[in-house]
Amino acid sequence: MTVASDSSLEVLHGVASDVFTGALAACNIASAFDRRIRIEGNALHRLLPDGSGPASIDLACYKRIFVIALGKAAGPMLKVLLERMTRRKGVRGICCTNQLPHERNWRFRYFEGGHPLPNEDTFAAARAALALLRRAKKDTLVFFLISGGGSAMFDLPLDPQITLEDAIAFHRILIGCGAPIAEINTLRKHFSAVKGGRLALAAPEAAKISLLLPDVPLRTLDALSSGPTSPDHSTVADARELLAKYELAPKFPPAVRAFFERTDLPESPGNKSWRPPFLQKLPPMLPTRLPWIEAVPARRATDAAALNGEQAVFRDSVFEILLSSHDLMENARALAQKAGYHTVVDNSCDDWDCASAARYLLERFHALRLVHARVCLISVGEVTVALSRNPGAGGRNQQFALACALELEKYPREQLTVLSAGSDGIDGNTQSAGAIADPTTAARARAFGFDPAQSLARFNACPLFTALGDSIVTGPTGQNLRDLRLLIAEKS
Q: Is 3.40.1480.10 the CATH number for 6-25+328-490?
């Protein structure tokens, strides 16, 4: 039987790797910041994407500026903001990320929060941020720099009786239950003292600007880091419905279970009359903005007293998306086209079960390559996985690649490659960003003593791909724009 040559597949591996790394490199935080925000003297200009012109905020109105940066991109985002505010003195804040930056500003407190599970710094950072925000008055402007990963690395239970060990177990159970991220984060919002809008509520009189790097679907932006500054549209009833749907309560530690079973479980702040699509149980929708992500006229902090309670907190907030998975996708498309491939984008399987997503994209891929000699199918977003009690070393991207490898084995003569990798450089509990698979992957793995089907069932794909040299290792990227999947084919 004739098989695709190792050299031809190696070339395809290189193409896939170059598209991924090139697309990620093009998602530059500094450039994105300058496209949205410009600071000139005491004037902060928001460059509105609809071309209607800048909306300006007079920084001279504020005696103090606080910055709360959280998530995997907190370090780079904070660095860019401070570089553009060199003339402002007295800026203070908190930075909580999973890898501390080498260069640190002495006016900031830095915390190395845990991910994917919380740690002591997770709680310490949340406490420090709340303490700082409670000092904010009408003369204070607060920047919130929010990126993905903040749900785990920045948290504090609403119930002070819940320990860190309880919180770790809570997060571990959620990430292994197979639920989409928006549903997982609905439960996190109702558990936390700093999520679901409660972080913003800690500084009710201050003006607020949230700069976002979402790792969630754009239709559910309030799921980003579980929405610490966003009004929450989910309810306690929604949380309890999800607990029942995934049979979670019996798995929780006693203190967490008792908390969710309280009859007086407090609602998170926000407009409960507006329902995001996943709560409406409607067909998927993808508006470019949620109703609360709109241009808000700049105002002096002194008029906040005229507004009432929680509505004032969010009505006077400005939200701006700096980068998203859409940017990652468009960069990948441009690079694949430049390399001579017919490109197709299909994000239909966002938040699908991993196995279902693999089947769907491979079917689409095989149909496309019957028509096009050189084709690249691009998909961004995340797939879900349900973990066993004792999972191995792996993540959703390596799981997806291994599932594809077993199917690609049916096409030994074909030049086919599948790449799946996380833009943050970390896949699950491993140091790999993801992996590359082709029609020879399964056979090569068996030659090394692996059983690919067993590795897939045990969620233990990382050792297999590492042995083959097909792991993608970037190290932490300082980004978190969801996952990129590339399915690339050439005629033999």
A: yes
